[in-house]
Please model this.
Amino acid sequence: MSNYFTVSTDSPRARAFRDLVRATLGFWRGLQLREEQDRDLEIRSLSSDTGLSRGVIVSNLNAVARLNSLPTLDAHNNEHNLLDLPRLIAIDLALVGTDEKLIPEVDQRLTEFLTPTRPNQVLPSAERIKRHIHNIIAMLDPEISPTPPPELSDSVTVRNHPDGSANFSLNMNGEQAHEIQSVVAKHAEKTGTTHAEALLGLVHGDTPPTVVLNLYRAKDVDNAPVFCHPVGWLDDDTAEKLLKRVTKVRDLDEVKQENNPAYSASESQRVYLNGRDGTCRWPGCTINALHTQKDHRINHADGGPTHVDNLACLCTHHHNIKTDTRAFYVLDPHSGEAAFLFSDGTWAWSSAEGPLGHGAKRWVQTFAQHRTTREKRARDAKRDKSTPNF
Model:
């Protein structure tokens, strides 16, 4: 296992942190409450001993209890000590309300996901692990939502601060929030104002700009799911509503052949790169691809083409590091995966995490197969019920 996930290398810092993860998990495992204990009083006592809040203590205890219910993952983690508390908490939250019948399959698939297949892969973040569990459950039972969407609020919540500023929030579906954010951002760019001023202008009657929401769906897979940045894979109802609004269809296979003479990536190339990469390609960076620059692996001035095989999504910070020649990467045109080489002599592997990435393509096929099988069973069951017995 050594030198596979970058956190399990032989560096002294990596070993020290693995020891810390092991000790921390051991501490919380030793505090598992027995049924006869008064939970409230025991948590109060723990809070006094550790200085941690009740919420933190409950989250940690629930996370450890969840790991105990996933024997395959638990054994894997006991051997490698990869999962710290933030990742264990993410796993617990993602599995809240999941049908117990699905847990063994989720346990197996999650362990496979957290088993590296290449040297120097980056350990998935807590958020990525949570998304992956959501995808597993959606594949095993599309009718189940592991994280039910919040009910739409009928009012805006405003919090005023002593300095005269204020925050407001409104619960809504992810794709609706993304659409509003896109409209505000584009209006701010058009009018040269801040986002707050742009939003206020729209409230006062400014004409909203037209924005584009890109949906991704495999054209060669029946029953394929639909993806929307930055929301992720959509449930069937949401996907159906958004697909009805589609005004243009792009064939992204054609974009892979596009040789653009200009320096800047074309709109179609940007859509493709966002779909392939998903996030900034710097190992471990989670900034959404929508908010990244499209970097030429081989500089355009040095003859590097504006072609998707020579382009990758990098956030501004990591693009500057690459420009400063403190990092370079080699991009596999087939899978979209990249090996990042750093000026200190280390390196790390970066996988393409978008809906067009190599891993997502395999998942889409498996998801579609599960959905097709499930629909066939439902039709067969319905037919059997309607067939009279003689």
Q: What stands out?
A: The CA atoms of residues 29 and 64 lie 6 Å apart. The chain is about 45% helix and 10% strand. The first strand starts at residue 157 and ends at 160. The longest helix spans residues 358-386.
